[in-house]
Amino acid sequence: MFRQNKLERLCHQETQQLTSKALSLIEQSRYRMGTSRFVEAFIDQWAYLQTGLYPAKEEIPEELQPVAFELSHVLSAAIKRDPTSDVLGYVLSMSGFHKKGTNYFPTPPEIGRLMSLIVGSQSSADFYEPCCGSGINAIHWMENLIENHGPEALREASIYLEDIDPLMVKCCMIQLFHYFESRNTTPKTLSIVGIDTLSRRTKNIAYYAEKPPATAATVAA
After folding, report:
1. Which of 30, 153, 163, 219 has a Cα-to-Cα distance from 121 of 20 to 30 A?
2. 66: in domain
3. CB within 8 A of 68, min separation 6: which ones?
4. What's the rounded Cα separation, in Å, for the pair 140 and 128?
5. Is 219 among the domain residues?
6. pLDDT, tens digit, 9 for 90 and up, residues 62-119
7. Same domain for 31 and 83?
8. Strand partners, 160
9. Could you tell me the residue range of the domain that residue 116 belongs to?
10. Could you give the residue ranges of the DSSP H alpha helices within the chain?
11. Same domain (yes/no): 68, 117
12. How many CB atoms lie within 10 A of CB 181?
C-alpha cells in the first residue's frame, strides 16, 4: 500500500509539472491571439487531427503552430500520466473560460470520484450524463467500474454523454480517448453529443463509437 501511494504521489507530481509546462506554452500566445482564443482554436485543431471530423473554425497563426504542436504532446503526456485528474478542465479554468459566459464551472476530480462511489458500479450498468463538460465524472465512473469489476466490465458498458458547448464535447472526446488508451480497454458503445438538454436542440456535433459484433472465425480446410 505504501509503495502504491508513493507511486500515485509521483504520478501526481509529474502531471503537475507537465500541466505547468502546458500553461507556460499557452502563455506564449497571449499577445498574438489571447490565451482563451488560442486554447479554443487549439482544442478545435487537436480534435480534428484526432478524428478527421469538424475542421477547426479558426486557424492558429503559423508562428504559433510549433507551440500548438508541443502543447499537444505535453497535454497528451499529462493526461496519460494521470487520466483521472481532469487536465483539460484545469487548463481551461486557468485560461479564463469561466469568464466567457458559457457557464463553465468544472467539477473538481475529487467530487467526480465521490459521485462515482455514491452512484455505485454495477457490472451491468450504463452511464448517462446530460452536462458532461470535459468528461471527468464519466472517467471516474469508469475507473470505479474497472476497480470493482475489472476492464471486461467496461467492455460491456455503454456511455452516453451530452453537453451544450461544442468545445466541451471535443474536450470530453479527447480525454476519454486518452483514458481508454491508458487503461487498454473501451466501452461497448460511446456517444458524446452536443445538445441543449432542455430543448433537445442539437449543436451539430457528435462523436459515436461502437464495437463491431463478434464474429466466429472460420478456417478453410
Report:
1. 163
2. yes
3. 42, 45, 46, 60
4. 13
5. no
6. 999 999 999 999 999 999 999 998 999 999 988 877 555 555 666 666 666 666 666 6
7. yes
8. 128, 191
9. 109-210
10. 2-27, 35-51, 65-81, 87-94, 109-119, 136-149, 151-155, 166-183
11. no
12. 14
